[in-house]
Write a structure and sequence with these properties.
Blueprint: H1 3-25, H2 29-39, H3 44-55, H4 62-74, E1 80-86, H5 92-106, E2 110-116, E3 123-128, E4 131-136, H6 137-157
Parallel strand pairs: 1-2
Antiparallel strand pairs: 1-3, 3-4
Length: 158
């Protein structure tokens, strides 16, 4: 068994045993098995939202989120969620500018989800309707590195 397959098998075993041990200690091993089988059907967005709620200790809001989700879906809400990632928190002025620009471009009301990720160094990343627009310093540096690398390699081959 190769190293990566062995590592994967070890991870599977560790996750499985941790889940089983917790479920047995709470007397719900069979119930957790049923939930786990349904979890395979979750979209990445649902799993990411659940993970975020868990990290923020907000799992208690799950029922309210599900109810609000249904309300918005039933109302055919046209608000677009825009995830904004910056290296530092947005101030009120920049937040208003980002919202206004997004609403103008999308021709719809916008709900901003703000994330702070210092690793982008600076600039901004937007995620809208499954598409990512990356104007971060990290992305710009990666593009420069790629351009210089390909130019250098092409220059040597001549």
């Amino acid at each position: 068994m190769s190293g990566s397959k062995r590592e994967q098998a070890e991870k599977v075993e560790a996750y499985t045993r941790a889940l089983l041990e917790a479920a047995r200690s709470e007397g719900r091993a069979n119930a957790d098995l049923v939930q786990w089988q349904h979890a395979r059907k979750f979209t990445p967005e649902v799993l990411e939202t659940l993970a975020a709620m868990q990290r923020e200790d907000d799992i208690g809001l799950l029922e309210e989120v599900a109810k609000r989700y249904k309300e918005l879906l039933d109302a055919q809400d046209t608000t677009v969620s825009v995830t904004v990632t910056t290296a530092v928190p947005l101030d009120d002025d920049l937040r208003a500018k980002v919202r206004a620009k997004a609403e103008s471009d999308l021709n719809a009301p916008v709900y901003l989800v703000e994330r702070v990720d210092p690793s982008i160094i600076g600039g901004i990343m937007l995620e809208v309707r499954g598409k990512r627009y990356d104007a971060s310093v990290r992305a710009q540096l990666a593009n420069i590195r790629k351009t210089l690398s390909s130019t250098f390699i092409e220059g040597e081959e001549r």
